[in-house]
Amino acid sequence: MPSLDNIMQVAEALEKSPIIVMRDRCVAVRNRNAACRTCAESCPEGAIDVGFNEVKLEAGKCIACGICASACPTEALVPVKPTEGSLREASLNSVGRNGGCAVVACARIAAKRQADPSRYAEVPCLSFADEALIVELVSKGAERILLVDGNCQTCKHRRCIGALEESLRLARLLLDAHGSNAAIERVTGFPDDLREETTQGLHGSTRRGFFSEAVGAAKETAMTAARTTLESELGYKIDEASIGDRLRVTEKGTLPQLRMPRHEAVLNALDAIGLPQEGAIESRLFGSVTIDVQKCNSCGMCAVFCPTGALARAEAEKSSDPLRYLEFSAADCVQCGLCEDVCWKEALELSRTVDASELYDFEPRTFKLRSVKKKSFTR
After folding, report:
1. Is the preceding omega at residue 256 within 30 degrees of 0, hence cis?
2. Angle 12-15-16 from CA coordinates, rounded to 5°
3. Residue 321 has what DSSP assignment?
4. 206 — alpha (psi -120 to 50), left (phi > 0) or beta?
5. For residue 2, which of 6, 90, 187, 241 is within the disulfide window of CB 3.0 to 4.6 Å?
6. Residue 366, φ and ψ in degrees, nearest 5
7. Contact of 266 with 175, CB cutoff 8 Å
8. How far apart are CA 168 and CA 28, in angstroms?
9. How far apart are CA 155 and CA 127, in angstroms?
10. Which residues touch 214 (CB under 8 Å, ≥6 apart)?
11. Residue spans of beta strands (DSSP E) within 241-324
12. How far apart are CA 305 and CA 378, in angstroms?
């Protein structure tokens, strides 16, 4: 249970930035050879800088669009205005209030106070409505997703349109692959049944006091923001250890591995929607790995650095030297690309296209590696 001091610290953090950076979840922090710059490349304002085992967000430039959090494969960037939980709750509430229609509105259109705020979820920009949120809403009974925005061309978030359109495209691919015909629509005004004859007393989250919102968010994110959850998983105090100590190899022979709650929620949501059709699924949420066993020298560095354990030594081969078998689980892969980056033999390739059957296969795919004898040196 977070203390009052922790909650106050989180409230102060939220006041400074709408995004919390969980550094130790970033693959570029975990390994300086990581090529991933997804957050920096996706940020429309250039507010994120990644390099030299560091990821920094310049709060003064951040416009709270949430694109970086959606793009980050390892959930290293956590939105807090709104939090993922509060957005999910408000969106799911709208499904029940609107007869199976989930309604999400941008802050600009919500500020006009034309509709009942209890019947829609408000976000700074519709770019918050990524494929993870949409899939979960459909799994909970939404037959229609209605995204309401203002005049994007004159909005400070106008450069986010491309990211929103890509999220919607990927959401439709996932839903189509799982046999869902849920409709996703963007409109420039609230439907008539959501409009109010009088707007007196109506207000969205943008008109509420910051402190009350921050404390509400803190109840959900204090453990994350204070990093106690991460510290518990990794077994050390982040502020009391150097990066070398924090990211040391564990007894399992790997760097500390992380749970991906958002990733797990998407998988569960897709499973609830229905079994996928045969064929390949394009997604940025999952990945597929192939290994050229003729190039591979069985060093196992891909398994050592994989942040989720998607690539791992076969259980029976963990003590073998040289390594003979690697296992890969598509359901655990978050497409961070670190396995490619640490493979100095260039024997491994990551793809954003996953075979539908493999995504739900409980048995990992096994790579039988060629035996590479160690060189012996004699005088």
Report:
1. no
2. 95
3. S
4. alpha
5. 6
6. -110, 135
7. no
8. 27
9. 13
10. 10, 11, 14, 15
11. 280-282, 288-291, 311-313
12. 33
Residue 324, both tokens: 């003979």
Strands 183-187, 144-148: pairing kind = parallel
Q: Which residues pair with 184 in a beta bridge?
A: 145
Strand-pairing partners, residue 185, are 146
Which two three-digit tokens encode residue 162?
């491309």
Question: Which amino acid, one-letter code, is at 368?
Answer: K
User: What is the helix (H) or strand (E) element at residue 164, kind and residue range?
Assistant: helix 161-177
Q: Verify cis geometry, omega within 30 degrees of 0, for the bond prior to 191.
A: no
The pLDDT tens digits along the chain (379 residues) read 444 444 444 445 545 688 989 888 999 999 989 999 999 999 999 999 999 889 999 999 999 999 999 999 999 999 988 989 999 999 999 999 999 999 999 999 999 999 999 999 999 999 999 999 999 999 999 999 999 998 888 888 999 999 999 999 999 999 999 999 999 999 999 988 888 654 444 444 444 443 444 444 444 444 444 455 555 555 555 555 566 666 777 878 888 899 899 999 999 999 999 988 888 999 999 999 999 999 999 889 999 999 999 999 887 765 666 678 999 999 999 999 999 999 999 999 999 999 988 988 888 999 998 776 655 545 4
The whole model's pTM is what? 0.83
Query: Quick one: which of 312, 225, 230, 246 has its CA closest to 53?
Result: 246
| CB contact at 8 A, 245 and 108 | no
Q: Residue 341 belongs to what H/E stretch?
A: helix 338-342
Q: From residue 283, how far is each of 40, 143, 376 by CA, in Å?
A: 20, 22, 45
The DSSP annotation for 353-372 comes to EEEHHHHT-SSPEEEEPPP-
Structure tokens at 184: 């996703």
Length of the chain in terms of residues written: 379
Distance of CA 209 to the CA centre of its chain: 28
- State the CB neighbour count (10 A cutoff) for residue 146: 21
Using CB atoms within 10 Å of the CB of residue 258, give its burial: 0 to 12 exposed, 13 to 18 middle, 19+ buried: buried
What letter represents residue 122's amino acid?
A: E
CA dihedral of 212, 214, 219, 224, whole degrees rounded to 10: 180
Are 291 and 367 contacting, i.e. CB atoms less than 8 angstroms apart?
yes
CA 78 to CA 14: how far, in whole Å?
A: 11
Q: Report the C-alpha gap between 319 and 314 in whole angstroms.
A: 10
